[in-house]
Design goal:
The protein is mainly alpha-helical. It has one domain: Glycerol uptake facilitator protein (Up-down Bundle). The protein is 65% helix and 1% strand. It has 11 helices and 2 strands. A two-stranded antiparallel sheet has the order 1-2. Helix 1 packs antiparallel against helix 2, helix 3 packs across helix 5 and helix 5 packs across helix 8. The N terminus and C terminus are likely disordered. This is Aquaporin-2. Keywords: Membrane, Transmembrane, Transmembrane helix, Transport. Belongs to the MIP/aquaporin (TC 1.A.8) family.
Length: 318
């Protein structure tokens, strides 16, 4: 994506006048607007699910903590799956500043669009948190906080689960192949699995905008909010180095080629037919070798067979 875009030359300008240049193109602004809408849709659905899970009354029939974690994980993962599938042909469906940084480092998006996307994603997180707070009763339940771990552990947990999400985006969406149109499914399931682990310990931000929005709306109640900036943002540079080295140097697609093909002729052959053909091939050399060995050893039975064969051929000629 070019950093500068030329504006159309006016009719009154002279032939020798230099064309005006703009840092931001109209396409970048429109893409950032749709990225804001997509992030708002994604996080509103996700925060709504979290709010519903936490709003269950405390009684013997209420869900257990494990069921609540599963409910929150499903809400986040499936919200991303649906939202990304809706918007991935428009903006790429990033909804995450950490993913945007990874795509910047892999030259998928330019620096201008990266900055606009990050602003749109952070504003989308704030808007989604404000909408859920206004539409539901009780305090906002989407704030992230550490539970039973220290800040260093929180940074590494957030870094690891964010690495899994960024890797799914790079391998399923950025790297083009036959299954790329179904990338939102794999990306959403990756977020779901990441929440199964991290939601209890860190709240499972896995997205700086997801942690930033509720924190802004509620006045930053947690002193460890910096964890959700340091942890996720340490990942994209490492992921970029891995994908670049595996693509250009290792050439991973040569290790197991044809895995994304839809050609039925690339399917394995019929196993029964393969076994039969192998048996036929294995029998033919043994019979010819045994025949040659008998002739060389002077086996009288073999010579009698040869004589009888010659006699039959002579009788047929007569």
């Amino acid at each position: 994506m070019p950093l500068f875009t030329r504006s159309p030359k006016s009719e009154n300008s002279s032939a020798g006048a230099r064309p005006k240049r703009s840092f931001i193109s109209s396409q970048d602004l429109i893409a950032a607007l749709f990225e804001y809408v997509g992030t708002t849709v994604f996080l509103t659905l996700a925060f709504g699910g979290v709010q519903a899970a936490q709003a269950e009354p405390s009684n013997p029939t209420s869900p257990t903590s494990v069921e609540r974690v599963l409910y929150i994980s499903l809400s986040m993962g499936f919200s991303l799956l649906v939202s990304a599938w809706l918007f991935f042909r428009v903006t790429g469906g990033l909804f995450n500043p950490n993913v945007s940084l990874a795509l910047l480092l892999t030259c998928v998006i330019g620096p201008v669009r990266f900055v606009l996307y990050c602003i749109a994603q952070l504003l989308g997180g704030i808007t989604a948190a404000a909408l859920v707070l206004a539409l539901t009763s009780g305090p906002l339940a989407s704030n992230t906080s550490l539970q039973g771990i220290n800040a260093a552990q929180g940074v590494f947990i957030e870094a690891f689960v964010t690495a899994a999400l960024v890797l799914s985006v790079l391998m399923l969406a950025a790297e083009k192949h036959t299954a790329t149109p179904f990338a939102p499914v794999g990306i959403g399931l990756t977020l779901f699995v990441g929440h199964l682990w991290a939601v209890f310990y860190t709240g499972a931000a896995i997205n700086t905008a997801r942690a930033f929005g509720p924190a802004v709306v509620t006045g930053f109640p947690d002193s460890h909010h910096w964890v959700y900036w340091v942890g996720p943002f340490t990942v994209p540079s490492l992921e970029q180095g891995f994908t670049h080295s595996s693509s250009s140097t290792l050439q991973y697609w040569r290790l197991n080629p044809g895995q994304d093909t839809v050609d039925s002729r690339e399917s394995p052959p019929d196993p029964v037919r393969s076994v039969k053909s192998m048996m036929v091939i294995s029998r033919e050399p043994q019979s010819s070798v045994g025949h040659d060995q008998r002739r060389m050893s002077g086996d009288p039975s073999d010579e009698g067979t040869v004589v009888a064969d010659r006699g039959r051929r002579n009788d047929s000629l007569v």
